[in-house]
Specification:
Strand content of chain A: 15-25%
CATH architecture of the largest domain in chain A: 3-Layer(aba) Sandwich
Structural class of chain A: alpha+beta
Number of helices of chain A: 15
Number of strands of chain A: 18
CATH topology of the largest domain in chain A: Vanillyl-alcohol Oxidase, Chain A, domain 3
Largest sheet of chain A: 7 strands, antiparallel
CATH class of the largest domain in chain A: Alpha Beta
Strand order of the largest sheet of chain A: 15-12-14-13-17-18-16
Helix content of chain A: 25-40%
Shape of chain A: globular
Distance between the termini of chain A: 12 Å
Oligomer: homodimer
Chain lengths: ~475, ~475
């Protein structure tokens, strides 16, 4: 712990400054706050968990942390997949889950003001009362918090048409490292007053400040949708269909690819009659309206032309929901698969979210298959194919150095392939600990220098989520 | 000039480093590069104008400028309305207008890569060949450059449905103050690798770096549209109609308000039979499609319910284009009005672009009318009412201290009113010199501190567009 005082002294100050139930120190309780869902990323041991309910309580926490140079790791529901919310040794975990109020839904200006601990799906439910919705829908939408969504600029399934979290963040309130509170952004539809601090905080993974309030743009409620499911003999053919759809005039609101590894893993976790023999399932939807039948016909034609063996179109909402629910199970299903592949507690997943320009999608898919074969690993492929954003999920044995080495080699090869195809190392999960080295490669030295300059300007003591996104400062490493 | 060397030495170095035609020093030529279209904002005298054609030439210019601490003011077509592109004494004007290549249109990934000097409308023309378009459409779209649009995060008329410039900027190449080149952002639809430097540069008005290449998202070409024109007995009633439309389920692609001052000014500039007796004209459009007739009916009903005396619906594209062309003439028409109101060269305009939440629009409109009456000034109102973003344009006599004082008082009162209504001091024009003091009020001291920290981190010598957005550093003032 870089602080000059004892943890006990810091805890005593926190207890004095905050309500009685806001500071947790029981080691048994702390364990559950150690890490997010990124297996294999390092996690340290916190000295305490702080659960504030107000901005002032967050500010008080950060004033104390700053005074004693204690690291602070902000956390939402810990559903992240890059280790950004993992504890570092001697840190305070600042859990925002108790800041869970929907403060306001304003139907005329089509916005909602929420605290960071509100669960994603709760916002849509609050908005639905006014015929509105909040579109971004990460797979974790029933559990992940909006604060975590904003801190990682989370994506989701409807992003192919409706965009990611950051496009909906109009304004935020942030507590800075020293406890100062700043409001950025606006409630207006347009605004260009000064630098876009709001977007700078979005996706900064708790390294620049702690978000305590969010003003979100809402949209009219989604129209009913028509869905399409297409089966392919190869993942590559499914990828070709996606490229053809991107090139067409169709505007799908969803375009997901699920490979055979995931289909079987999902079916094993929750049997629902998924096609066991297909190499890939492409799942698409279009919003209803005058263009819907034509759009669906175009998507169907793209699938057939690319080699689909079966295309099924449905306006049955229950059927569509079942397919979407299956898709959302991809992550837990792969965890089960890893657990079933190896003896108890030994199987692990390296989860990736590389994104490439859609035109390069088949090259990415073929490359991942080649890498998996070369490294003799099971690598499942699932993801937001319409955005060129895939999740190659690598199954490894955490206790076998050879398996781990092959897994890491495959991961690095996939990252290198993604960048070579004009892509990015992370489409939606963020950098955290998992992608730090690849971020540096993607940015180049000048980009890293600008990142470091911003980090130093916002957090001169380096107490905010140190070591995430950027390596720790050399002087403190 | 803060440099320790003579201007001649700096010019000699530039001439040695750049192609022969890239450095202009003829004082008669320089005059035309002194200022943008923001009348009444201070403009200094540059020592030279540099017109690079490549990123490397921009980098060479900035290396020389850095070495001698010479201020650099980046300029596009100088159509800005806040003085951001105005020369400062002893500066180099870095005009990007010769960097005018559309490098690439990629129809599969729906993006264009352009140099900063490409005129906005050229991008749409290049995209149209592929059935695509670039939506943001400032009134100056036939003359303003994309570099200027990005540097100011420009708005426009279709933004009410399609959003502003920044929402289309996927990636940029930037030359930093010291001449280093950095690429930010991506070609992928999604990406969360590191801090959002792209959005930080967007709207930073040349104070953090010089943008040398832009990757823009494109959209499918616009559908044909249906238009609606409604006349009102008062501006306030037109505002009430806008609020009613915002509250409805209609999705207008355009919702503009033009008051009687502007209607008469436009008619005087180019007679086209605009309704001379109306207090306000509301202009709207919806994209064609299954919802269009219903949406138009809703908009018409909102207008009638709010007191419209006449509502005219048309699918005649020529008629719609004529009305839009009239709207685009608002700014030159008001300049003509100011010139006609006072003796030659004496009439001037203070142009504003306050934005408020749409629900507060009538309060803004009524307040501006009250302020105009109180200050005994002609204040025309025109703007993107559907976004709550209005242009109260104040007519003053630049040679009459009393008129100028009343004009500035009205401007300040309007800014204060906008902020009190939960709005922003600038919806689309940017801060430049015009809104610097109001930006500081809007941000508050902590927000200003973060702005200053970013500026210092990116431009430690303070050579990039000094005094714009933020006041000059005290040590150099």
């Amino acid at each position: 712990m870089p602080s000059s005082v004892t943890p006990d002294r810091v805890i005593a100050e926190l207890v004095a400054a905050l309500p009685p139930d806001a500071v947790l120190t029981d080691p048994d309780l702390l364990v559950s706050f150690h890490r997010d869902e990124a297996d294999l990323c390092a996690a340290g041991t916190p000295v305490a968990v702080v659960r504030p309910r107000t901005t002032e309580e967050v500010a008080a926490t950060l004033r104390i942390a700053s005074a004693h140079r204690v690291p602070v790791v902000a956390q939402g529901a810990r559903t992240g997949l890059a280790g950004a919310a993992n504890a570092v040794d001697g840190c305070l975990i600042l859990s925002t889950t108790a800041m869970d109020r929907v403060i306001e839904v304003d139907p005329v200006n089509r916005l909602a003001v929420v605290q960071p601990g509100v669960v994603n799906a709760e916002i849509s439910r609050a908005a639905a009362k006014y015929g509105l919705r909040y579109p971004p829908d990460p797979s974790s939408w029933e559990s992940s918090t909006i604060g975590g969504n904003v801190a990682t600029n989370a994506g989701g399934m409807c992003c192919v048409k409706y965009g990611v979290t950051g496009e909906y963040v109009l304004g935020i309130e942030v507590v800075l490292a020293d406890g100062e509170v700043v409001r950025c952004g606006r409630r207006t539809r347009k605004g260009v007053a000064g630098y876009d601090l709001t977007r700078l905080f979005v996706g900064s993974e708790g390294t620049l400040g702690v978000i305590t309030e969010i003003t979100l743009a809402l949209r009219p409620a989604a129209e009913e949708s028509l869905t399409l499911a297409a089966l392919f003999h190869s993942v590559s053919e499914a990828g070709a269909a996606v490229i053809a759809i991107a090139e067409s005039a169709a505007a799908p609101s969803l375009l997901e690819l699920i490979d055979a590894v995931h289909l079987r893993a999902i079916e094993a976790l929750r049997p629902m009659g998924l096609p066991a023999s297909a190499a890939a399932l492409l799942l698409s939807a279009v919003d209803s309206g005058i263009r819907a039948p034509a759009d669906l016909a175009v998507i169907e034609e793209c699938c057939r032309r690319s080699g689909a063996t079966e295309v099924h179109v449905s306006s049955d909402l229950a059927e569509a929901d079942a397919l979407l629910a299956a898709r959302r199970l991809a992550h837990p299903a792969m965890e089960s698969l890893a657990a079933a592949t190896f003896p108890a507690g030994v199987g692990a997943l390296i989860i990736d979210d590389v994104a490439v320009p859609v035109s390069r999608l088949t090259e990415l898919l073929d490359g991942v298959a080649f890498i998996a074969e070369e490294q003799k690993l099971v690598v499942g492929l699932v993801g937001h194919a319409g955005d060129g954003n895939m999740h190659p999920n690598i199954v490894v044995d955490r206790t076998d150095p050879a398996s781990m080495a092959r897994g890491r080699a495959a991961f690095d090869q996939i990252m290198a392939l993604g960048l070579a195809l004009g892509g990015t190392c992370t489409g939606e999960h963020g950098v955290g600990l998992l992608k730090r080295e690849w971020l540096a490669k993607e940015l180049g030295p000048t980009g890293v220098r600008l990142h470091r300059a911003i980090k130093d300007a916002f957090d001169p003591l380096g107490i905010l989520n140190p070591g995430k996104v950027l390596p720790p400062r050399r002087s403190r490493a």
